Amino acid sequence: MAVKNLFDFLLALLLLPFLLPVIFILIILSTADTGQFGLFSQIRIGKEGKPFLIFKIRTMKGDQESDITTLKTHKITAIGNFIRKTKLDELPQLFNVILGQMSFVGPRPDVPGYADQLSGEDRQMLTVRPGITGPAQLKFRKEEEILNLQDDPKKYNDEVLWPEKVKINLEYVRNRSFGLDLKYIADTIFKFK
């Protein structure tokens, strides 16, 4: 997948000059809105199960280390809610792509306790770099809203959403292609709701 790696790196380098001012504005807005520095990093599990620091725009007040985010469990601000819904909080991950830790398309990197605990054939999900977008992210685009409706969001995530995401991501890993990646990128941009 040398073409994919080169594409990711060059696209991130091309986009960064245009999106850097947007990222700075989002950091300033988030800092004012949350009372904490607007850029934060969090440990996620990457390729081969190796941990790395993911970069995101802060969208809530207080601790963001919990593995399941809902309106019930986190103090997501009004501005933060907009940033999350529009996925603008993901823009700093261009740096993760440039650093070779992430791809534009792949399984979403999860917090420790999920992907790093995969076993057997499920570990194939860890043979590729995690992505900013991908088939599971597109299917569960409104994941926070789904979890917010549950009495026990963590249990629902662990027993329903996570197994389905693994299934979808394994299908992606086994059938991935450059053309399919371009389709997921286009779907992410043009099917935003």
Briefly characterize the structure.
This protein has 193 residues and is α+β, with helices and mostly antiparallel strands.
How far apart lie the N and C ends? 31 Å
Overall tally of structural domains: 1
Q: Specify the biggest β-sheet.
A: 2 strands, antiparallel
**Structure summary, number of beta strands:** 6
Helix content: 40-55%
- Counting H and I runs of at least 4 residues, what is the number of helices? 7
Structural class: alpha+beta
The percent range for strand residues is: 5-15%
Q: What is the spatial order of strands in the main beta sheet?
A: 1-2
Evaluate the radius of gyration.
Answer: 16 Å
N-to-C SSE string, H for helix and E for strand? HEEEEHHEEHHHH
Q: Could you name the ranges where pLDDT drops below 50 across 5 or more consecutive residues?
A: none
What is the overall shape? globular
* Overall mean pLDDT: 90
